[in-house]
Amino acid sequence: MSSAVQTAFAQLPPPAAVSLKKIAVVGNYLPRQCGIATFTTHLCEALAAVAPDLAVIAIPVNDRPEGYDYPQRVRFELEQNEIASYRSATDFLNINNIDLVCLQHEYGIFGGPAGSHILAMLRELRMPVVTTLHTVLREPDENQRRVLAEIAQLSDRVVVMTRRGVEFARDIYGIPEEKIDFIPHGIPDMPFVDPNFHKDQFGLQGKTVLLTFGLLSPNKGIEHVIRALPEVLERHPNLVYVVLGATHPHVRLHHGESYRYSLERLARQLDVDRNVVFHNRFVSEEELLDFIGAADIYITPYLNPAQITSGTLAYSAGAGKAVISTPYWHAEELLADGRGVLVPFADPHAIAQALLRLLDNEAERHAMRKRAYLACRDMIWPNVAAMYLRSFERAREDRSRKPRPAFTAVTLRERAVELPAPRHDHLRTLTGPAGIFQHAIHTVPNYSEGYTTDDNARALVLSVMLERRGLEWPYAPRYLGFLHHAFDRSTGRFHNWMGFDHRWLDEVGSEDCHGRAIWALGVVLGSSSRDGLRGAAGQLMEAALPAVGKFTSPRAWAYALLGLNEYLRRFPGDRAAQALREDLAGRLMRLYEIVRTPDWLWFEDILAYCNARLSQALIVTGRMLNRSDWLEAGLESLDWLARVQTAEGGHLVPIGSNGFWRRGQERARFDQQPVEAHTMVSACLDAWRATGDERWRTEARRAFDWFLGRNDLGLPLYDAATGGCRDGLHPDRVNQNEGAESTLSFHFALEEMHHAGDIIGS
């Protein structure tokens, strides 16, 4: 432990001097099965034990609708993917006289891109905030960097658990060092005992016990330990390798027990199955400590070097175990100076040699145990809780010198637009046995109009957008199945129109329909984490791409470009896709240069439908390929489109579909379509991401407000009762039918606005 932390600990006031009366700790909580839940639970109990007069309440995050059977300490529950829940938690904390909030931050436990929903809570809290960073990435993506930077800005103090975490927080995220507290991971206070004392509880007396524990997932590297066993067992046949812990719930949800089964098969293939024990259960703290006590050697063969904190490693070193580990960040730090042995990643022979070294040299093994045990004594939970109390007091002192006002007047212009909570009832109603129905009669599916590839492609894209924020939409395989069925391999093209009787009504679909299908497939391949979806999408993408090079429709080019950019984010080495992307973007650019005049900054002599997609395709491609000419053309054309679609009153007036607008002729004011408002939202937000210019977020809000009633008629198109969207704006009324294109357009826009609003506040 560093001298800075030791000094902080020495200066701690006795528990009676703690000025705080009531704190809330936000993070997962037992009985949810994960490391954050275990940590949060133990921290709360340790704080309550060290400061008996301090009221400690917990605010856990639920990743399933039914929640968990929490203890009484839990006073409020966050629903992971519902942003309204975070705002409700803010109100709960602000009105309940909470003196301080201690946030346990891990990207994966909160909803929104990179866990950004938590920002909705932090922005409005009135009390000091101390945030513990359980993950500090060296190479964050754009969203991860922005989210963590704002969390740090909104926090009065930031806690990290390793010295490397201090460096990363300071150098990568720009957190002032004077704002950072280094407090190690807490551990139970275990006596330094002979492992044989515990072995008889598990029938392991007379055995040498090698232990790995924690929730199982493929990044744990356990297969490399099993591959090392034959070499070790030749000299130490009494060794038993105990793998303790259930499969991670999220891994089990998506992949079942396939990883555990693969490990069992490997053990049998290597004829070491009589020396391997799988204890497939999430054990209690008491059982866990007994298992650790029985271990002669603990091993963490993790495969990811970018692990800044490991609770299992801290527990084992603190219990005085001889430890072998791969050199992930926390292990390099905790096991330095002879407190453990580091081996290369994914190297069974190196693991075997390290095991033989410790097993053959009992004196060295016991000396290593003692060094680890003594070095970790400051990490026992009472000491760690005392350090947290000191951090809390510092946060309160800092806030008293520079208080946040109880109420800050925020004008409507300064405040982020209020967004409806997502409601998907009508999308469920529209989804039939083959896919999503095209039209509705008011809110009832219109079976006689059947299905289209256009709408099923859109629905598939929305499914992935919902998946990004943690909601696995169950109909995604149905929409992708429709695309597979729509593809005619003899022509290399998609059908578009299907009747209710599931018979195709066209010989070949439009180029635009094909482009939308490529867009959807690219989004699945680039962003979905569902292996089955990606596998099916990959086969179809490969078969459908060749036709795109022959297309003449600019919108087909634009949709294909959006899909290719998504695909190439994940598979940047695909040279055929790279070449097609550059070809299509070049075509759009040449078209713009030919048609553009000072008073008509556009790609065609007509403004028709889904206009903003043309600008967006150049913006996104130009940004990804550092082509400033493409980016500037996209921004210029989008700027012009925004200007000609803005009424004198400041609201959006999309080009009407009843005639569109041909250069030199009268412009159609109606029928205004939801898809035009959505594509403006999407394109403007990509322009904002490309430039950082807040003007583009203002334009996106203007377009989104069209759905809510800021339009020519002053009437909302979004139906809050069903979650559907009405089909368009006529000169005298709203079209009351709620079809697929309209409803999907609204939900696209809503998801994108939530995303942008979460990441950067106004």
Q: State the separation between the terminal residues, measured CA to CA.
A: 40 Å
What is the tally of beta strands? Answer: 26
**Unreliable stretches:** 1-16, 405-416
Secondary-structure class: alpha/beta
CATH superfamily of the largest domain: Glycogen Phosphorylase B
Tally of contiguous helical segments: 28
Description:
The chain is α/β, with parallel strands linked by helices. The chain folds into four domains: 3-186 and 381-401, Glycogen Phosphorylase B (Rossmann fold, 3-Layer(aba) Sandwich); 196-377, 3-Layer(aba) Sandwich (Rossmann fold); 424-449 and 596-762, Alpha/alpha barrel (Glycosyltransferase), CATH 1.50.10; 450-595, no CATH class. It is built from 28 helices and 26 strands. The strands form nine sheets. A six-stranded parallel beta sheet has the order 2-1-5-6-7-8, with helices on both faces. Strands 11-10-9-12-13-14 form a six-stranded parallel beta sheet, sandwiched between helices. A two-stranded parallel ribbon has the order 3-4.
Topology:
Blueprint: H1 3-10, E1 22-26, H2 35-50, E2 55-59, E3 61-62, E4 78-79, H3 83-95, E5 100-105, H4 118-122, E6 129-133, H5 142-154, E7 157-160, H6 163-171, E8 180-182, H7 196-199, E9 208-213, H8 222-233, E10 239-244, H9 249-255, H10 258-269, E11 276-279, H11 285-294, E12 297-300, H12 311-318, E13 322-325, H13 329-334, E14 341-342, H14 348-360, H15 362-375, H16 381-401, H17 425-430, E15 440-441, E16 444-445, E17 451-452, H18 453-468, H19 476-486, E18 487-488, E19 493-494, E20 497-498, H20 511-527, H21 531-544, H22 554-570, H23 575-595, E21 606-607, H24 612-625, H25 628-644, E22 661-662, H26 674-691, H27 694-708, E23 718-719, E24 724-725, E25 728-729, E26 734-735, H28 740-759
